């Protein structure tokens, strides 16, 4: 008899071994982007603090999260893999950060059939353009899943996942713009660190 498990990717098996609550906590920690206190993780996850604290302790024991300093917690590579995010190397990072052809650039729209004649030809360029785009355009693209699709298209699974999680929060306007810019900017810096070269944080 053929085992179904043999046809399931490893990260799916890992994810299935976690409770829905633990998976949601990992997702909240991914979106936070840096070590945070369990109280803040609970707020981001929309859960009660005592329950989150208990789960975070368990996740740390299991190796999905780590505590770089007392009271702060962040994801490990194992935690990211549980969310379906592959580890990247220097070459992957350089590829994601590289400029892309005109036809693959992100085209900003104000709405259906309303192009803004503004485009992003790479991740850093995208981050530079976010402050210049009307917040209605950002709301439009986020609600349609356009950002996560484009991030996935340039090879950044982690950023696509973060955009998808951000979309689920249903935030809009300037709050969404700020959060999106922070996430993309932090990702650019993280990729640059892996790739071994500097990227502007402005």
Structural notes for this entry:
The structure is a single chain. The chain has 202 residues and is mainly α. It has 2 domains: 4-82, Arc Repressor Mutant, subunit A (Orthogonal Bundle); 90-195, no CATH class. 57% of the residues lie in helices and 8% in strands. The protein is built from 11 helices and 4 strands. It has helices at residues 10-16, 20-32, 38-45, 49-62, 77-82, 90-97, 123-129, 135-144, 146-153, 157-168, 173-195; strands spanning 65-66, 74-75, 106-111, 114-120. The strands form 2 sheets. It has a two-stranded antiparallel sheet. A two-stranded antiparallel sheet has the order 3-4. Mean pLDDT is 89; it is low at 1-16.
Keywords:
mainly alpha; two-stranded antiparallel sheet; globular; disordered N terminus
């Amino acid at each position: 008899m053929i085992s179904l498990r043999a046809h399931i990717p490893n990260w799916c098996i890992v994810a299935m071994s976690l409770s829905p609550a633990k998976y949601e906590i990992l997702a909240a920690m991914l979106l936070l982007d840096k070590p945070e206190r369990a109280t803040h993780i609970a707020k981001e996850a929309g859960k009660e603090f005592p329950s989150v604290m208990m789960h975070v302790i368990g996740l740390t024991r299991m190796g999905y999260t780590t505590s770089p300093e007392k009271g702060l917690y962040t994801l490990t590579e194992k935690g990211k893999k549980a969310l379906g995010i592959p580890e990247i190397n220097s070459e992957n990072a350089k590829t994601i950060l590289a400029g892309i052809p005109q036809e693959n650039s992100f085209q900003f729209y104000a709405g259906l059939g309303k192009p803004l004649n503004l485009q992003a030809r790479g991740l850093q360029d995208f981050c530079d353009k976010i402050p210049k785009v009307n917040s209605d355009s950002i709301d439009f693209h986020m609600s349609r899943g356009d950002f996560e699709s484009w991030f996935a298209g340039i090879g950044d699974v982690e950023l696509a996942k973060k955009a998808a999680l951000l979309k689920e929060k249903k935030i809009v306007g300037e709050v969404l713009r700020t959060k999106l810019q922070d996430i993309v900017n932090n990702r650019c810096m993280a990729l640059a660190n892996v790739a071994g070269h500097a990227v502007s944080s402005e």
